Fold this sequence. Notes:
Elements: E1 8-9, E2 18-21, E3 31-32, E4 35-42, E5 44-49, E6 52-57, E7 61-64, E8 70-73, E9 79-85, H1 87-97, H2 102-106, H3 117-132, H4 139-158, H5 170-178, H6 182-187, H7 189-192, H8 200-211, H9 215-233, H10 238-244, H11 250-261, H12 265-279
Parallel strand pairs: 1-3
Antiparallel strand pairs: 2-9, 4-7, 4-9, 5-6, 5-8
Helix pairs in contact: 1-4, 3-4, 4-8, 9-12
Amino acid sequence: MTNDKVPVFIFDSRCSDMFTHVPEGPTITHRHNFYEFVFVSSGEITNVQDDGSFVLTSGDMMLVTPAQTHRIVIDKPTQRRDICISSDLFREVCSVIAPEIYPDMLEFRSKIFHPSIQTISEVVRKLDYYIIKSDKNDRESRALAVSVCSDLLSDMLSDKKFMPENGTPNWINTIFTRFQYAEKVRQGLSAIIADLNYSEIYINRIFKKYAGVSLSAYLNETRLSFAQNYLRTTNMNVNEISNVLGFSSPSFFFKTFRAKYGITPKAYREQILLNAEISV
């Protein structure tokens, strides 16, 4: 069936920015003028699109864009939820998360991704509240729609299959480089992620994929590593080290250092000095 003969489902964004439903059966071949997240909660479906087909099973999700022609085939009992987002809202969310991704989304081909249990639980909670609201055009409803779309899009983009195949993104390398400078570390995450043109939520999700820990955890580990070095190589006291590295207070520095190394900063320095005297 050629594209000009394929039915087009129209999303009337004058009514709302988002709608959601729980369809029971397969679909005909179609397109739509909105973005659609399809989540399979049980069973399986087959998504057939113009460049092939793939199966989604329990816990899988896909994004279908206005550029795609597709149909859903169901051969066994299945439960799924479709979350439909207006094109205007989707573009707005892209501009907040990562401005340069929207042009890519225009030609995006569906792939399976696996949203976290936490994301799905939070999205379902927001959708349940959104559904019972009588006015879908008020500020609260729009904020809910933006939040749902942001949660799902961020989760999708943090999936490894949507990351660059060759090497680490340049902006991730930029973050790692900034962590090497004590002044940036003192200033905190706002300085570390400044001018990257991505939302903090998106940066944190992608960073965790590469570093294995969150930005805040990595910052804390870096500060402690700098602190060790200052205790070994300078005469700064604990309060000065806490201040120069941006710890919220000397007591917090003391607590986190002891939790990490099993020894207080003062005892660590004394141990270093003792070992130096013995070696002489």
